[in-house]
Amino acid sequence: MKLNLALPAESTAETAVLASSDRENRVARLLEWREKNADLHHQLRVAGIRRSSKVREVLQRNHTGLAKLRWLASLRQNPQFQPTDLHVAAKSWILRAPNGTIHTFRNLRNFIRENEELFDAADVIWKAQTRRPKLTWCQAYQSLARLRPGRARTLESWNGWTWAGDVTEVALAG
Predict the structure, then answer these.
(1) Does some domain include residue 5?
(2) Between the N and C ends of the chain, which has fewer C-beta atoms within 10 Å?
(3) Are strands 161-163 and 136-137 parallel, antiparallel or unpaired?
């Protein structure tokens, strides 16, 4: 003897309606919780992403081997990542030299490289950073960068060099 465990058609349809409305309520409650606890939700999402083995595999695949070589080649072609005025991180500068000349330019590193004769030889010895060997610095760069208003440890002057622009120009020029 076989037992028929299937529900009648009416109760199956009712169950489906109840299940879908229950699902909608759960989604609505979840969205409401996310909105109320945005910071906690963000922290939990980031923690989950960091723990994810799938994310780790994709990152390892994209940051090694041929994929990394392709990415680096594309960077070398992109003018926004070249040591020019178009560099993505370049800022506008207005500096007064010790002799009173005003220099207006973009990209401080590039300016120093192209005008090394304006500085003492000891101040333009370029050194690589320990963790980021492609990012170089010299004493002239470190010191002139601190002349820009709005920095944490701003200098009034360095070896006769001073900031020559208005403070408002810094925010506008970027």
Answers:
(1) no
(2) N
(3) unpaired
